[in-house]
Amino acid sequence: QVQLVESGGGLVQPGGSLRLSCAASGIIASDYTVSWYRQAPGKQRELVAFSPSSGGGVYVNSVKGRFTISRDNVKNTVYLEMNSLKPEDTALYLCRAYGPGRGEYWGQGTQVTVSS
User: Fold this and answer.
1) What are phi and psi of 76, to 5 degrees?
2) What's the pLDDT at 5?
């Protein structure tokens, strides 16, 4: 059974940092493109960043320079390091794993709230 479990969310003040984790089981995460999405109340789900199976990271403009996506293939985990957080970063953050011919999987999400 495939599971993606996000953790690391919480309440943080503006300008603060959090590191989110997406721990995979039942798949080898390095075989998949792993993405982080977020969804704020009343808004559409939006892509934040993704890491191709070959490595590296691609970011949307609103988080470029503040967020970093990385992988630990030993732990089968993908991280999202978030710095200089803003109130508009408040959302439920979800990870997605996609591999052509391998399928698509989503986690349940972890809540990030940026507020003073």
Assistant:
1) 60, 40
2) 98
First to last CA, the chain: 40
Which residue, 83, 15, 76, 24, is CA-closest to 49? 83
Are β-strands 110-114 and 91-99 bridged in parallel, bridged antiparallel, or unpaired? antiparallel
**Cα 55 from Cα 71, distance rounded (Å):** 8
Confidence of residue 82 (pLDDT cuts 50, 70, 90): very high
SS3 content of the chain, % helix, strand, coil (to 5): 5, 55, 40
Length of the chain: 116
63 vs 38: CA distance, rounded Å: 12
What distance in Å separates the CA atoms of residue 31 and residue 46, rounded to the nearest whole number?
A: 23
Amino acid at 56: G
DSSP letters, 68-99, are EEEEETTTTEEEEEE-S--GGG-EEEEEEEEE
In percent, the amount of the chain with pLDDT more than 90 equals 94
CA separation for the pair 56, 36 (Å, rounded):
14
